[in-house]
């Protein structure tokens, strides 16, 4: 987990943040995407988000235009081969599903006949990107993870262990739990406005292991390895958690502003389909499927005109001027009676102050993300769209409704 950057300006942010949630009535009606088709045939590999982007400027508004067919067994599900049609009802765009040729999906099973889907419905988003994050507890709510059992060594004097290797783990004395997860503690996730406030403790999923023998140390066998097991990795009981994959994209609750805390996989620039951690969780009423707009801006930037950088005329600089010696970033503020050094022969010396001419960059929409897994104070989210490289610290806010 890379170190979080905090080079963000708080002066004047209250007014800028207010601008993130200003909503003008009747301005944000559902708008079609440029070149939206009148019909679209769903293909294998499509996602609901991709299809929504074919029709709508804001894909998260899909539920506002989708008219499901109540005669189907799963009226809200879309399958490869379905044809979607764009029409207008009372001046508003509506997307419906055309009647499939050959009637409903029917599979004949002797001696009964019943209707079933012969192909899986398309997912909301690309599940292969977030699959490793759906069932593994990558954020610990407290620092208890560091007090859990840990890998202390290996039977064959290896430096690391991999798939099917045995590992020694301190203090597992009961056979009540057979299956364990191996985690590597990471850096604490702290609030941007209060570095002393810990929101959770990041942990990297290393693998799964099965108990072979209790004791101190106990012996476990690695059954799944996302990376090499190292001495010091923590071992906790595995959770029988079912992955939540049926997301319903919808706007995040009003007023739920936050920040991107971290990005997974050790990258610095954040783009489409990257997984990030945001500083809002279940206690903020955040649920899987909630969509946020990502805003870039809020940083203090140098005013190059006021500081003289943009209009410097170096041919006219004189040795008698401040800028000749110190550059245009500094200005003369007066004389000091305090000598520069104890043995200075001059009673006074000039003082210069660095120019503070700057401006705060306005917030601009830069992409969208969707939450797919929540904890109490933080959540995992997938970047669905990015119009520029996003960064740790970028603000998030509910999209306009």
TrEMBL record:
InterPro entries: Bact_Kbp, LysM, LysM_dom_sf. Gene3D superfamilies: LysM domain (3.10.350.10). Residues 38-86 form the LysM domain. It comes from the Bacteria. It holds the Pfam family LysM. This is LysM domain-containing protein. The lineage of its organism: Bacteria, Pseudomonadati, Pseudomonadota, Gammaproteobacteria, Chromatiales.
